[in-house]
Structure formats: C-alpha cells, structure tokens
Design goal:
alpha/beta; Rossmann fold; two-stranded antiparallel ribbon
C-alpha cells in the first residue's frame, strides 16, 4: 500500500475557527448512537475500546450539561434494527455487512481486536439500544428509528431541526468515520453549519479512521472543536447579545 503524507492544513483550519460564530438560539446537539451497543463494554455488540467509551461518556456528559443549561436542545439519534423472520437483522439487507459478519478471524475484522456482532447489534427491544443513562435527561429529544449511517436518512431529524429553528448542528457520538461523518456530509449538503466536538467522538474501527474523519470534516465539511473551544464560542455569543441589549 502506498504511504501518503498527511497534508498540514492547520493554518487554514485555525483561520476557519477564527471566523466561526455560533448563535446558541439556533444550535442543537445531535448525539449519534450514544447507546449501550457501542459505549457499554459489558453488553456492547459493536464496542469502542473501554478507554474511548469512558472518555466519550465523560466528555459528552460535560458538553450536554453545558448545552442544557443554555437551552441548547439535545437530540439523541439511535440505531434500532428490526429482527425480521427469514431475514434476521435488517442489517442483513446490505451486502457489505453480510460479508463483514462472516469474518470470524479477529485479526481480519473491520474492528481490530474487538468483537463485531453486526447481526446481533441493536435489535429492537435489546439493552444495546438504550441510551447511556448518564447522557440522557428528561426534555431531550429522541429519534430511535435510525437504520443507516446517516442520521437524516429515513428519520424525522430534519423536520425536528426545522421545528426548532436550528441552523447549526453540533454532532457528537459514534463512529467518527461512519455515522458522524455521514451525518456531517448530509448536514453540510442541507446547508446547516456543521460542528463536530472532537472530545465527544470515537471510532470502533481504529484510531487511523477516527483521525481521518476529523481531518476530512475540518478540511471539507465543517468545524472540529474541542469542548473548551465550543464553550468559548457560545459564551462569546452570549456576551455579544448582552452588550447589544445594553447598547440599545
């Protein structure tokens, strides 16, 4: 395989960050697949590493508490597959995943060093479909009919964002290079401002694809911010609003 040197685009990325403004009143957090099927090592069917799971749950909890305190809506989007007689999991409809599920050798799996029980993953009614308890609060919105990597496809996410008058989507969750990236693409294509919080995403597919996805998003689709950078942008908007009010 050809070795490709990573292009340094940090100057462009930093300049883009300097131009970013966030209006909290038009912002929503979209939490992608932050359920026990990925983030609870005791029951997960397609788990992230224990270290990544602990980091994402801890940091996402901080982010969501900050958002709720400022009336920024939190939307959980959860993958749930039906178990269909004669077919099994709805995941079986996709040829690629049919092949992936047949690989039993751990060294050749798409999720290196960890199990990947695709055909048992997030079946309707299973514990895996449960949102991580410390990440959910009453008042959060839940969309639990996600069937594909893109959170917009086949769900009412866009309708909900429109109802909430949102123009900025802050995407967190699992996996950075699949569902987070796919959702970022569609949000960008639908003219939403796209932000991904790097502390609150991870990939069960490996650190290389996690890093690739963050680079791809920050160079082509939107802004990749840390929690602290996101907080600063929100607080700057709040301060500006107060100053504008005082100057009237």
């Amino acid at each position: 395989m050809k070795t490709v040197e990573m292009v340094d685009r940090s100057a462009m990325i930093n300049q883009m960050k300097s131009m970013l403004a966030i209006d909290p009143a038009r912002t929503a957090i979209v939490a992608v697949d932050m359920h026990r099927g990925h983030l609870d090592p005791e029951v997960a069917t397609m788990p992230c590493s224990r270290e990544d799971s602990e980091r994402v749950v801890r940091d996402a909890g901080e982010l969501l508490r900050f958002a709720r305190a400022r009336q920024i809506p939190v939307i959980h989007v959860v993958l749930v597959y039906r178990n269909i007689p004669g077919i099994g999991s709805e995941a079986n409809a996709r040829p690629f995943y049919q092949c992936v599920s047949r690989i039993k050798d751990e060294t050749n799996r798409s999720t290196p060093g960890r199990k990947a029980l695709m055909m048992e993953h997030n079946i309707e009614g299973s514990v895996q479909t449960q949102i991580i308890p410390q990440l959910y609060e009453k008042g959060d919105f839940v969309i639990n009919n996600k069937k594909r990597q893109d959170c917009f496809m086949g769900t009412d996410l866009e309708i909900l964002l429109h109802t909430l008058n949102v123009d900025t989507t802050v995407i967190i969750g699992i996996n950075t290079n699949t569902c987070v990236l796919s959702t970022a693409y569609t949000a960008n294509n639908k003219d939403y401002k796209v932000i991904v919080v790097s502390d609150c995403v991870a990939s069960m597919y490996g650190e290389d694809l996690h890093f690739f996805a963050l680079q791809n998003i920050s160079r082509c689709l939107g802004w990749v911010l840390t929690i602290d950078e996101f907080k600063e942008k929100v607080m700057a908007a709040r301060t500006g609003a107060k100053e504008a009010t005082c100057n009237v």
